[in-house]
Amino acid sequence: MNEDNYHAPLDTTTFLRIRKWYLLALAAIALSIVVAQILIQHHLNSQLDDSKVINVAGRQRAYSQKLTKEVLLLKELSDPEQRNQIFAELRETLTVWKESHQALQHSDVAMGISKDENEEVQELFHKINPHYDAMVSAVENILADFRESGKSIPDQLYVDILLENERTFLKMMDAIVNKYDVLSKTHLQNLKFKEYLLLAISLLILILEIFFIFKPLSLQIRNTIKNLIVAHKKSDENAKEIKKLFQEKEKSLQELQELNFVIDNAALFASAKQDGNVVFISKKFNELLGRNAQELNRPLYEILTTDEGQQQYLAEVLKSNRKNIRTEEIKIKTTKGESLWLDMSIIPMHQSSAQQSILILCSDITERKQNELKVAQLTQANYEETMRQKQLQASQIVEGQEEERKRIAKDIHDGIGQMLTALKFNIESINLSNKEKTAEKIEYIKSLASDLIKGVRTATFNLTPPELSDHGIFPALHKMTHELSKLTGKNILFENKTEENIRFNSLAETNIYRVVQEAVNNAIKYAEANYILVTINFNDNILSVVIDDDGKGFDDSILGKVPKNTSEGGMGLFFMKERMNYINGRLFINSIPGKGTRVTINYKTDSRELIVAEE
After folding, report:
1. The architecture CATH gives domain 468-612
2. What gap in Å lies between CA 63 and CA 95, rounded to an integer?
3. Which of the two ends of the chain, N or C, has the fewest CB atoms closer than 10 A to its terminal CB?
4. Among candidates 406, 409, 401, 412, which has minimal Cα distance to 571?
5. Which residues form the Histidine kinase domain (predicted)?
6. What is the model's pTM?
7. pLDDT on residue 608
């Protein structure tokens, strides 16, 4: 490859020539675009003038008819006020009609109308002027009679003149409007021709650019790329040769970098002889230990720490002959009385010599040790706090169970026990000889036995519903709401939005049932609700149960507090949360005093655990 070509891959003369023609072509295209825009803008302005002229000319026809109509109305109307109004309108109409007619012939800057120099248009106006003048004269005479003598009924002579000239005026005005329209279309055709001509010139310029600019430029670029590829191949060959020359140098640099890395990351280093005397100790290590230059004549184990026990241990470690590197975490004490932890690596040197020396590389790990101690302390504190919380929860659960036993015993004693006692007394007091009293007592005993059966059913139902184990959570909740509605007289409704009766594991069903039961009982006992709705739904492997009531509600800020004992209340809500946490469910309670309470239960289960129960 030629050296000149290598240094100058693009021909300067060719490049300058292509650039000149390219700029000329762009200038020609820009000029054609500018000229086209000037023509278009000029035509748009003329079109605006033409549209105004056509609009005014068309309006002249309407105003001529309006003049005739208003004059005829003067002959028909008898009301003086209406005649006065018509005269005012007639005067205004005549004024506008005259101004517009003069503007069409002689131009009017205020109306935006310029004079049309077309001879045919001027000839048409010359022909229409006598009729226009006759109509103007007739109307002005009518207005003069009204103004001077108060004559409100126009003379028939003026009316006839107006009627005779109006028809001819309209026909000739139509001819003028049509002529204006033809002139406007002619202007548009001229503009279209000029636009096509400019388009052809622009396309011709583009074609010339393709053949005389882009094609030569593409050939020049292709040759340049070819030369660059050849040069690139040669540079790759040279690079391979240079790479071989620098391989040994890179290897040496890598070794130096590794050594620098060790030194940079172990700024705390020292070396000593086999007897323990110091050969060298880094400045940073010396500053950390708080030693001065006069103290470096002592053995290394005495320099490292001021504690005698640590000195004896370090002396044994440093004097022992070893072939392998030894790493230890050692606690030392500085001259300032500070305790430091060092990660020490003891490296044997000159193993073939009898006077073996050692190199010590250290890292200050005091902060890490302190953090490990803090982590251990926090871990112990967290463990103790967790155990305390577990003990507190266990005691609260035991208290809750004891309260539940007391409640069951109280219900049995106060309800079933008293009814059994009353039943016993009534049976013992039956006197068969007194049939009337006996019949009354038997009826009372029947009623008492019915109440007793109802109480037993309520107690057993609250303890363990058979529907829960036999048929699942859906039928059990339906049965619970139905039974509680009958027993309490409250409107307790159940709405099941699922299509199938799905079974969950027994632990989840039991805990969900107890939480719903507790929520409904709270609504009955404490909220004094009259309407309770239990809604159950299952979507996307999430079982959702919502309990709404219209009770008196409560301040839900107490939900974040754990009750200290059962006498303060709130244990029911606490156990509801504990039951849902036990099965990894979620419980939401929203209440507004005076507006009711909503309890929401969400339980997510694995689809593999679901079973569709048989009907």
Report:
1. 2-Layer Sandwich (3.30)
2. 10
3. C
4. 401
5. 407-607
6. 0.36
7. 53
